[in-house]
Amino acid sequence: MSAAAVGPRAGFGRAVAWVLLLAGGLAMILPLVFMFSTSLKDASEVYDLRLLPAHPTLDNYVTVLSDGRFLRWFANSMGVAVVVTLSNVFFDSLVGYTLAKFEFRGRYIVFLAILSTLMIPTEMLVIPWYVMARNFGWLDTYWGIMFPGMMTAFGTFLMKQFFETVPNDFLEAARVDGLNEFAIFWRIALPLVTPALSALAIFTFLSNWTAFIWPLIVTTSKELYTLPVGLSSFAVEQQIQWELIMTGAALATLPTLLVFLVLQRYIVRGVVLAGLKG
Amino acid sequence: MAGIAIQDLVKRYGATQVVHGIDLTVQDGEFVVFVGPSGCGKSTTLRMIAGLEDIDGGEIRIGDRVVNRLEPKDRNIAMVFQNYAIYPHMSVGENIAFGLYTSKLDKVAKRAKVEEVGRILGLDALLERRPSALSGGQRQRVAIGRAMVRDPAAFLFDEPLSNLDAQLRAQMRLEIKRLHQRLGATIVYVTHDQVEAMTMADRIVVMRDGRILQVGSPMDLYENPADVFTARFIGSPTMNILPAGVSGGALTLGERPVRLALAEPAPPRILVGVRPQELRVLGEGEQADLALAGIVAVVEPLGPETFVHVEIGDQLVLASAAAKNPPRVGGAVRIGADVAALKFFDAATERAL
Ligand SMILES: Nc1ncnc2c1ncn2[C@@H]1O[C@H](COP(=O)(O)OP(=O)(O)O)[C@@H](O)[C@H]1O
Ligand SMILES: [Mg+2]
């Protein structure tokens, strides 16, 4: 392989690959760089598209962080994302485990029904969700923001696939040891799929942290806005203060980074664990 | 401890029946080994005893209780699995302590039991380790420890040594046997390896296609196999089976007729079984009750003895020779055995005569 990759043709191919990757990387990272750069600029400098601010300042951060609304939205987003994530980690794995490890009449039908909802995009679900929320009186409440995501077909599917890789011997050994079925799930099966749990947690947290359309639709009072909705309202009301929006956005990326850094460790450890069986 | 009694046990998966009415009594403290080829229903039977599979007919008793409908945890048995099934996210000590999950002992007493079991199994220095930092043999010992710590009515083992290499397997065989002697426990042990069965069992149960073919002590099965299958399955190397005719009450096989002393009249076609250890290469002019001539195909020196594959007609027969001066490959050779060493089977039914 390495011997074949030496000649001039291979060198050329590699150069092309590098250029493409570099272009892709830049395309991804430049908006982020501009976001940070703009957040350090003075309002007068915003439309001056230089990468480095002429007079870097932290004033925007002070303004945003001392604005009670921002902190409120940040807390709203955090609360919603955390609750929905915990709910998914628990319920998706419970259902996934049941589908993977128990035989019962209609199991396949249930699985198909869950899978089929994967094919319906959020945009199509928004209207039924809205009708449902209105009929139940959930409009403009935290529960209204959260309920559609409390369990997901994707998470259930993911967990089912992972639980299928857990050898039955573990569960049967626990059954002989005297654990009840919930204890087997909670104390034996769940710890064996930590990599999948971490992946599911990261994925769920991120998608809820950045969720925009549904929170925008279901909330009307500003105190209930999530961060993305709140930031966009900055744009509408105050003739677009880009430097403040970018500062808010920059602050919004922090939890994302944190979640990833913390949970990544478990992913790696989980993979090590998974390679253990005899 | 308790004995186990199985009566007319049946298991079906859908339309296919995989266990066809098994009867067996395991005495209290007895070490019984189920042996048979892969897929013959050994694990299924064991799992029915454990309560991990529902039964479709018959009765299982542990001690004096019928356990047909009891959950595994209510049967007071312990089970050791082929791939150990020790929990990777718990330390060795925690794994062993899990055997006491339902026990009412307090923390200190539990800890003491775990340490005692650790000592018995030579795991005392490893109690804080994770299973990932253990060798295969140590992992299996942890699994045995988790089973032992509870003083169950019976131990069930399902091919516990199959994942270990040959050397470790021999060592663990010895350890399990000594453990049995020490604990006096009732053990039902499943394996496809006849060496494990021969070396460990008080009694061996030979299974095939969901039925018990024969039950007996290792030597009993070795000396008096009930049929060709058991004869070939038990003992290593495999017993030679030679087809022969019968005329005038004597075998027509080899250099001269061999008188048959059977209780019943012999069937016209017979299978003659003779173990390689009993079938010796004959010296010049040496005589034997059964003597055959052939060509040496392969010579396998093993140290104390040498096995010789001999081509007789279109059949390959395994015989033994003294370690010194083994016959030459390609040369003509005569092999022979005493009539007392021969087993006779009906060629039609393959049952012993
Ligand atoms: N869950 C199951 N569903 C259908 N057939 C099974 C199942 N488990 C085992 N069998 C079948 O039952 C027979 C006996 O299996 P098993 O007891 O595992 O054999 P052994 O342990 O002797 O190798 C095999 O033919 C196997 O294919
Ligand atoms: Mg098996």
TrEMBL record, chain A:
Record's keyword terms, sorted: Cell membrane, Membrane, Transmembrane, Transmembrane helix, Transport
Residues passing through the membrane, by range: 12-36, 73-97, 109-130, 142-163, 184-206, 244-263
Pfam family, one: BPD_transp_1
Subcellular location: Cell membrane
UniProt keyword Lyase, yes or no: no
Superkingdom: Bacteria
Residue span, ABC transmembrane type-1 domain: 74-263
Membrane topology type: Multi-pass membrane protein
Main location: membrane
GO cellular component terms, semicolon-separated: plasma membrane
Gene Ontology biological-process entries: transmembrane transport
Similarity remark: Belongs to the binding-protein-dependent transport system permease family.
Name of this chain's protein: Sn-glycerol-3-phosphate transport system permease protein UgpE
Source taxonomy: Bacteria, Pseudomonadati, Pseudomonadota, Alphaproteobacteria, Hyphomicrobiales
From TrEMBL, chain B:
Residue intervals of the ABC transporter domain: 4-234
UniProt-annotated location(s): Cell inner membrane
Gene Ontology cellular component annotations, sorted alphabetically: ATP-binding cassette (ABC) transporter complex, substrate-binding subunit-containing
Location (main, coarse): membrane
UniProt keyword list: ATP-binding, Nucleotide-binding, Transport
Example GO biological process: carbohydrate transport
Domain of life from the UniProt record: Bacteria
One Pfam family per UniProt: TOBE_2
UniProt key word Glycoprotein: no
GO MF term (any one): ATP hydrolysis activity
Membrane topology: Peripheral membrane protein
Matches recorded under SMART domains: AAA
SUPFAM superfamilies: MOP-like, P-loop containing nucleoside triphosphate hydrolases
Family statement: Belongs to the ABC transporter superfamily.
NCBIfam families reported for this sequence: PRK11650.1
Protein name according to UniProt: Sugar ABC transporter ATP-binding protein
Species, as recorded: Alsobacter metallidurans
Lineage: Bacteria, Pseudomonadati, Pseudomonadota, Alphaproteobacteria, Hyphomicrobiales
